[in-house]
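PROTEIN–LIGAND DATA SHEET

This sheet pairs a single protein chain with one bound small molecule, zinc ion, given as SMILES. Inputs appear in the order they were entered. The predicted three-dimensional arrangement of chain and ligand is reported afterwards as a token string under its own label.
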Amino acid sequence: MAQVCDRCKKSMGFLDKWKCKDGVVCYDCIKDLDKSIRNNLKLYTVEQIKYMIDNPDISSDKAYQPQQYKCSNSVVIFNPIDRSLSITTAGFFRSEAIPYSSIMGYDYREDDQSKGRYGKMIGAAALGGLVFGGAGAIIGALTQKRGEVRYIKRAEIAVSYKKEGHIETAHIWVLDSKFNDKIKSTSYQYKALLDEANKIMLMLDEIITSGDENQES
Ligand SMILES: [Zn+2]
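PREDICTION REPORTED AS:
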């Protein structure tokens, strides 16, 4: 039996069918939505999709669009609708959705060495070695080291978040030695890597500082 679109109730062929978070919609219904929304349809419920179709000015608003960052071996998606972050590694393994409100901080590491942290306080201890700054301070410190040539094999942003009373870590691999050659700290690739890491850390800074204070215990 052919499936019907959850919005217009039209029956759909196989190629016409688009999966979203809690149902399916047809191509005709979603064709005018922004590409960044169409490509991440699984992030949205049928209700949210209906709302965006009925309010085209809203669906073209960046605030509703998922922000996606491609790294060496992972894709990071910031989902503004349900306010969560997920990481897809190696093209198929998708992490659980990490709610923004659970994110405590992050640590930018190169070859397992911390190059700068940012985060909230947990109990008496600051998770962030650097309580000021954030992405700007971390990238600034790294780019100031002129003259010193290093080779970097791995770079990651380790995101700390609360889950059932524990602190868990999610790894965003910006450079992965399994998939990339080592890079020189004076190279263009390194600059590009820092640019990408910077964008992701800026998003995290915003999430961390933008509150959800009432959820703090
Ligand atoms: Zn439809």
